[in-house]
Amino acid sequence: EHPSEPSGPVIRGIVFEENTKGDLFPAFKASIQNLETGDLVTTDSLGLFLLPGTFPAHISVSYVGHKTDSVKLQAANLTQITLKKSAKFFPQLQDDLRSVTSYYNQKLKI
C-alpha cells in the first residue's frame, strides 16, 4: 500500500533503517511529523512517505527500536533519511527477527 497524494504542496521522502551490520532496509510504518504544521503520516512498505508541507521544513522521524531523528529539509525531489539503531534495543534480536521475516517473505513470494 503506497501513500496517497495529499492535495497541495508535499514533501516526498524515503526512510531506511540500518541494522547492526550496516545494511539498509525500508522502514515500514515509520512515523513522520511536520513539526511546523503538526501533520503526521507513516511510511509504506517501501519506506516512502508523502507529507503535506513546503520547503524549508522541519520534520521528526520515529521508528520502533531506532533513535528518533529531527531533520531540517531544504528543497529536494526525494529526501532520504537513514535511522540508526537505538542502543537501548536488543540489536541481535531485531536482526534475527528480520532474517526470519525475510525467509518467510521469500517462501511466500511477498
Could you explain the architecture of this structure?
With 110 residues, the protein is α+β, with helices and mostly antiparallel strands. The protein contains one helix and eight strands, in the order E-E-E-E-E-E-E-E-H. It has one helix at residues 91-108; strands spanning 10-18, 24-26, 31-34, 40-42, 48-52, 57-62, 69-73, 79-83. Strands 1, 2, 5 and 8 form a four-stranded mixed β-sheet that branches. A four-stranded antiparallel β-sheet has the order 4-3-6-7, with no helix packed on it. The protein starts with 9 loop residues before the first strand and ends with a helix.
| Largest sheet report | 4 strands, mixed
Using only C-alpha atoms, the radius of gyration works out to: 15 Å
Head-to-tail CA distance between termini: 13 Å
What average pLDDT do the residues reach? Answer: 81
The helix-strand sequence is: EEEEEEEEH
| Beta-strand content | 35-45%
- The chain-level structural class is alpha+beta
Q: What is the helix fraction of residues, given as a range?
A: 10-25%
Number of helices: 1
The outline comes out as globular
Number of strands: 8
Low-confidence stretches: none
Helix and strand arrangement:
Layout: E1 10-18, E2 24-26, E3 31-34, E4 40-42, E5 48-52, E6 57-62, E7 69-73, E8 79-83, H1 91-108
Parallel strand pairs: 1-8
Antiparallel strand pairs: 1-2, 1-5, 3-4, 3-6, 6-7
